[in-house]
Amino acid sequence: MSWPSCPGNAGGLPGAILLAICLLSQTGCSSAPTAKDSGAEQVLVVKIAKLPGGPEAWERLLDGFRAEHAGLAVHTEWLPNASDEQHLFYVINLEAGAADFDVFALDVVWVQEFARAGWLLDLTERLTSDEVRLLRDDYFRGAAACSFLDGRCYAIPWFTDAGLLYYREDLLSRYGLSPPRTWDELARQAQLVRKRQGDPALAGFLFQGKQYEGLVCAALEVLRGHGGDVLRGGKPSLNDPACVRALEFLRELVVSDVSPPMVRSADEEATRRLFGDGKAVFLRNWPYAWTLFQAPGSAVRGKVGIARVPAQPGAASAPTLGGWQFGVNRNSRRPGPAVELVRYFMRPDIQRRLVLELGLTSPRRSVLRNPEILAANPFLGKLVESLESACPRPLSPYYLAISHELQSAFSGVVAGIRQPAPALAQAQRRIEGILAQEAAR
Ligand code: GLC
């Protein structure tokens, strides 16, 4: 099966020994019931990260599958939220040939790496022609493209993400402002609103600045929104003056206090909570935050708008493509039922419930455009535009190695300990080295 190629092209992790031990012990102490315990003939184990709305809605969703598969118990095992921590867990366990989980959620940026390592069941021949057509025509192109390596399908998009700019609608309109289109405008507006509000506790722009995968997602939006990119034509392009300007902008955000010092160590949840407490004008985050901002009792309920992430004049807005896929452990002892579960999550009725009951974004266009869904959540209509144009991170089995170089450069600049140009030059050299190794294999 051929698949349209994605822009860009191009995998180690910090030696977090403590975390590794902790993650290893999670498998060691796994309490998945045996078939005997549950009274069912077979047990399917699914691993996913904790969900924003808690486990109940997820379990209810699984109940439909359980009802259709008598004799099959489905047990969920939860992992920590951070993509990097989950990655570490899987690398350790799959490398060791773990067979104690069947279906698991993969960040869009891991599929190629895990497929190359031989850890994923090849789904290509198991998909029906209708499902292939669906993936091609109804799934958002970027999300579907991340499921493939060398034309073979190794995972199916579960939910999708695109970076969004959240803004305080009430505050912008109080000062006659419309949502910023350029990064410079965002910085100016943030300062203006803060000054006029006269509240020292009100932050301007919150983004994820901690050294981790989320920083790569956020900083790429600034980089690309200044006309730069990590790779061009498959080659590293970080020496471009546009990239230097973008990192200077990022550093200036912190130096000029448009972004508070907390961003240097902030992840999605830390920034989401601060903005949700009404303590910031702008926030960069994923779609999941919307439902939480609109929840009863939220300090910002009814006061938030979303816009596309800004871009400087002459550059295009480039929301980062995120999201999660379901794959099947190649060592699964129950591949048939495991594939059935992955397939269950492709169904439109299940995808609709994913949106309505779990607040996650369906990767299927027809689901997001469904009148019932749109009526329940008009926000989704606006979101589609960002999803359609979401830009993937470099697609490569070596993505994680590339990401670590980017993380080091970006966080050094955000923390104020590295200068943009030399940080980028070093990342450029190292990514060249990673790609040269890839080419030599
Ligand atoms: C979200 C995205 C994922 C990304 C991660 C970074 O979970 O869906 O693709 O890698 O955030 O923190």
Describe the structure.
The protein is an alpha/beta fold. It has two domains: about 15-160 and about 320-380, 3-Layer(aba) Sandwich (D-Maltodextrin-Binding Protein, domain 2); about 165-320 and about 400-440, D-Maltodextrin-Binding Protein, domain 2, CATH 3.40.190. Helices cover about 45% and strands about 15% of the residues. A hairpin with a 2-residue loop joins strand 9 and strand 10 (about 235). Helix 10 crosses helix 11 (about 240-255). It starts with 16 loop residues before the first helix and ends with a helix. Alpha-D-glucopyranose (GLC) binds next to helix 10 and strand 13.
Main beta-sheet strand count, sense and barrel state: 5 strands, mixed
- Give the CA-CA distance, first to last residue: 24 Å
Mean pLDDT across residues = 91
CATH superfamily of the largest domain: Periplasmic binding protein-like II
Structural class: alpha/beta
Helix content: 40-55%
Our count of helices gives 20
Q: How many domains would you count in the coordinates?
A: 2
Question: What's the total count of β strands?
Answer: 13
- Small-molecule components bound: alpha-D-glucopyranose
**CATH architecture title of the largest domain:** 3-Layer(aba) Sandwich
Strand content: 5-15%
Shape: globular
Give the strand line-up of the largest sheet: 2-1-3-13-6
The CATH class assignment of the largest domain is: Alpha Beta
Detail the poorly predicted runs: 1-37
Q: What Rg is obtained from the alpha carbons, in whole angstroms?
A: 22 Å
